Amino acid sequence: MKMNAEFERVIKYFDEDGDGKVSPTEIRNKVVMMGGCGGGEFLFKEFEMAVEELDSDGDGLLSLEDFVELMEGAGKDEKLRDLREAFEMYHDKEMCGFITPKSLKIMLGKLGEFKSLEECRLMINHFDLNGDGLLCFEEFRTMMMQ
To answer: Does the record carry Hydrolase as a key word (predicted)?
Structure first.
């Protein structure tokens, strides 16, 4: 709930008329006040398009829920990007995008955790959803989310 309180403060900062929602005009006014862009018609259209894309109820305004959705979605994208980078470190270059027991053993060794090939096989088998003895990105993601 602490996060929602932070989001509420942001919404209140932009919400000039106190209706609990933020319009493209209110966003533009605050950005201009903070010394951002000139505030011309082009800038207003950009804010209008952004609000339209994020507006969940079609009223042309951003609510707290819309803002939370935006922030949580950005967090998910970042987590997915981080997982993709981690997967790239582990996967076997020769196997074209899969983590093999051998590549897992090598990477764990680099991290100071020494496992036998059999132990790595068992670790992979635990999350290997299709039974091919390899981890694809989706299986790796499932493993990392637990």
So the answer is: no
* Mean pLDDT, rounded, for 113-133: 92
Q: What is the pLDDT of residue 14?
A: 85
Q: Note the pLDDT tens digit of each residue in 55-87.
A: 889 898 988 888 777 767 666 677 788 888 888
Q: Which of 141, 20, 125 is nearest to 81 (CA)?
A: 141
Within a 10 A sphere around the Cβ of 28, how many other Cβ atoms?
A: 21
User: DSSP character for 98?
Assistant: B
- Identity of residue 8: E
Residues whose CB is less than 8 angstroms from the CB of residue 139 and which lie 6 or more positions away in sequence, other chains included: 127, 128, 129, 130
Percentage, residues of the chain above pLDDT 70: 82
Residue pair 121/100 in contact (Cβ under 8 Å)? The answer is: no
Could you say which of 73, 102, 117 is where a domain stops?
Answer: 73
58-96 as b/e: b if 16+ CB within 10 A: eeebbbbebbeeeeeeeeeeeeeeebeeebeebbbeeee
Claim to verify: residue 56 and residue 97 sit in the same structural domain: no
